[in-house]
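Help!! Second protein's tokens look totally different from the first
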Amino acid sequence: MGNKSKPDRIDFGILTVLQNNARLSNKELAAEVGLAPSTCLERVRRLRSSGVLRGFHAAIDPHALGVELHALISVRIRRHSRELIEQFRRHAYSLPEVLTVYHVAGANDFLMHVAVRDAEHLRDLALDSFTARSEVEHMETALVFGYDQKHELPNYSQGKPGSG
């Protein structure tokens, strides 16, 4: 990376390719972005060490792991303080059923995507892990009938996405 703290056009090309297929070999990645394999490898290492490239993940069919139900749980905290907000965030994120924790503005303070076995598991999670907590004032649950997830983030660092 020319500038140590800011990825350049080539780095963004590497990131775009990896977001779509992180299983490419370095040789294949280098060919995709038009670099020598050694240069490509060094750029990927720098992207990882600088924290821009956080990791690589496998997409797994939830049914293969016994996940039959997804839900979004909204939680409102009784009293707003940094300590309570952080305490609840840590608690929520520690639960194996919680896939994503969003701290949000609006009527609720948190929105969480959860994955559970079935409706009974969801009920138990809601009662035992959320409504039983003293800092929770209100909770709402919305069942997810289906979802699609993009794996490529838009690149706003160089103007509008798609504008080159």
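Here's the second one for comparison:
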Amino acid sequence: MSFPIKTCIICSEEFELRPDKPGFANRCPECSESEAASAAAAGSQPMDAIERKSLAEANEARRTAMRDLLYRKDS
């Protein structure tokens, strides 16, 4: 079975679009890997206790608001 040939929007190289390819369908594996590496490096910053607590409080407020919106009784 042959895979479709796509053109990368970043480097304009042609590549086969395989089902197990990481990243976006319009980017070649090399361009997808470089983006994934930069995203992983940016997201791995350690948080202090205050940031973790404020994030947890914000998530709890989101969950409460969604629960109230989804399960309120319209009477």
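Reply: Different proteins will give different token patterns, so don't panic. The longest strand covers residues 5-7.
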